[in-house]
Design a protein that fits this description.
It comes from Streptomyces bugieae. Keywords: Coiled coil, Nucleotidyltransferase, Transferase. This is Diguanylate cyclase CdgB. One of its GO terms (molecular function) is diguanylate cyclase activity. With about 550 residues, the chain is of the alpha+beta class. Helix content is about 40%, strand content about 20%. The chain is built from 17 helices and 18 strands. The strands form 4 sheets. It has a 7-stranded antiparallel β-sheet. Strand 11 (about 295-305) and strand 12 (about 315-320) form a beta hairpin. Helix 1 runs antiparallel to helix 2. The chain is rod-shaped. About 30% of the residues are buried.
Length: about 550
């Protein structure tokens, strides 16, 4: 038929091809596109049956659409043929360009493979180009034209309406249709992927908005303080966002806090603690400044958060008010280190403070070592020593000298014994024992005795300088630590303190009087705290006995 009316067939075929290709691009979804491909082969190219076999991600081909026969659709739709069986089919028969035609004389071997198919028996052809019911014609679809690229699917057609095998123009039309169908299916897949991506993006954005709202609410309404700060760069640590709880805790506004970083607010003694706190998972307990100038104890806990997957990172800090706990801890520590009656440092705290000023190296050996190395006098109050890590070649007085290690410890040296004051200064230890206290305690009771001890503690504290230590050793014994005194200074201090204690003490309407004996010892490196206290205690007893003898002679 094509040969008898070739110009008409060409024009009709082109019109039909143009129409069905136009319909390919109007489909809204991938499923609609696949069905349109199958319908176009039937309605536009003149075949009674067509099927679209689509390559799945695993490589096998599934019958995605069928047109022309409801029975064939029911039998074939959704069924899968293996890739190996399809590769076998596409390698058999005659090649019509990109088309593959398998005549009935060869196709019988495919009757039992796993590819879904719909064929009916029929008589042998009466003329050479007559279509036989067992003939098979496949139009492969590739991601690129002219058989290039990956296999996208296969259009299989059957039973041309004119009953003849397609001629050159029919073959060309089917091949062009397969090419356009491949483009339409690829575009439909792309649109489907884009739609899925948009849906997924919208869901992610909704989840992100929900997460941001959840974070905002958790941040704003958290019972403890929270802050977001910059991480890295010139503005590292600057507060970007604070919640109401932190503003209330520090007595500051959110806009006011954005001018600061935590390093601007931390107590000067706690700046080292803040700098040592790591960004990720770091914890610290320190003091932050309130607007009224006071400080509040807080616990900081850091974590690092990112704005996006590759976006800037920020520091999220939880700030918890631990003022009450710290106050309780300090009270417990004070009770452990101070006398419950007088409030003075107790025996353990006295020994700790005294031991912190002592070292195990005797001052005499230290002076000899520094003298041999050209070093400074170990009594130098500034603690200046030659650095023990580097030689001093080229500096006058140190050439070839063995360096002496310097541990930044100011060594204590006792002033020289004797009545004359040589002008040297040291840490004086004044051991005080009350005279006549036992008789007051026995006569008037423990309440009166406790009142006397409290008043003596007050008078001793009032009589020393800021920085000196007045401690209650136990019972009616007190110890005063006074640094930077010479021999005469220490003696004058003992006299002043004794005179401060002597005046009567009024307790419950009666006046009682106690005296005091002082022994002056000196702390010196190479001694232990016990040895220093024992030395002062012995001198106190010597002074007590000498005063007792003097009183007896005066009475006689």
């Amino acid at each position: 038929m094509e040969t008898e009316s070739e110009p008409y067939v060409r024009l009709a075929t082109l019109r039909q091809l143009h129409q069905v290709v136009a319909e390919l691009n109007t489909a809204r979804s991938l499923a609609d596109t696949l069905q349109t491909v199958a319908d176009g082969a039937v309605n536009g190219l003149g075949y009674e049956l067509s099927a679209v076999n689509l390559v799945r991600p695993d490589g096998d081909l599934v019958v995605a659409a069928v047109a022309g026969s409801a029975g064939a659709e029911a039998l074939m739709a959704g069924r899968v043929g293996s890739r190996s069986s399809w590769d076998r089919r596409l390698s058999m028969g005659e090649r019509w360009g990109d088309l593959c035609f398998i005549p009935y004389t060869e196709g019988w071997v495919l009757d039992d493979d796993d590819v879904p198919q719909w064929h009916t028996a029929g008589p042998a052809p009466r003329f050479p180009d007559e279509w036989h019911p067992m003939d098979r014609l496949f139009a492969p679809m590739y991601t690129a034209g002219n058989g290039g690229g990956e296999l996208l699917g296969v259009i299989s057609v059957d039973r041309p309406r004119n009953g003849r095998r397609p001629g050159p123009w029919g073959q060309e039309a089917l091949q062009m249709y397969a090419f356009q169908s491949a483009i339409a299916i690829s575009n439909a897949r792309l649109r489907a992927n884009m739609q899925r991506a948009l849906v997924r993006l919208e869901r992610e954005q909704q989840a992100l908005r929900a997460s941001e709202e959840s974070f905002r609410q958790a941040f704003e309404y958290a019972p403890s303080g929270m802050a977001v700060a910059e991480m890295g760069g010139d503005q590292h640590g600057r507060l970007l966002r604070t919640n109401d709880a932190l503003c209330r805790l520090l007595g500051r506004t959110a806009s006011g806090l954005r001018r600061y970083s935590f390093s601007d607010l931390v107590h000067p003694e706690d700046i080292g603690t803040l700098l040592r706190t790591s960004a990720e998972g770091g914890r610290a307990e320190l003091r932050l400044a309130r607007r009224d100038g006071t400080y509040v104890w807080v616990s900081l806990r850091n974590s690092v958060v990112a704005d996006t997957a590759d976006g800037p990172r920020y520091l999220l800090t939880h700030v918890e008010d631990i003022e009450e706990r710290k106050r309780h801890e300090l009270q417990l520590a004070h009770r452990a280190s101070h006398d419950s009656l007088t409030g003075l440092p107790n025996s353990a705290e006295l020994r700790a403070r005294l031991g912190a000023r002592l070292c195990s190296r005797p001052a005499g050996s230290l002076a000899d070592a520094y003298a041999s190395s050209g070093g400074a006098d170990p009594r130098d109050p500034h603690g200046f020593r030659p650095d023990g890590n580097e030689p001093f070649d080229g500096v006058d007085g140190f050439e070839g000298k063995a360096p002496v290690p310097f541990d930044h410890h100011v060594h204590l040296v006792a002033p020289a014994d004797g009545p004359a004051d040589d002008g040297s200064k040291g840490l004086a230890v004044l051991f005080c024992d009350l005279d006549g206290f036992k008789s007051i305690n026995d006569r008037f009771g423990h309440n009166t005795g406790d009142a006397v001890l409290i008043e003596v503690a007050r008078r001793l504290t009032s009589g020393v300088r800021d920085g000196d230590t007045v401690a209650r050793l136990g019972g009616d014994e007190f110890v005063v630590l006074a640094d930077g005194l010479g021999t005469a200074d220490a003696q004058d201090l003992a006299v002043r303190l004794r005179n401060a204690i002597i005046p009567p003490i009024r307790v419950e309407g009666r006046a009682v009087r106690v005296g005091a004996s002082f022994g002056i010892g000196w702390a010196s490196c190479g001694m232990t705290a016990e040895e220093v206290l024992e030395s002062a205690d012995q001198r106190m007893y010597v002074e007590k006995r000498s005063r007792s003898k003097a009183n007896r002679r005066a009475a006689g």
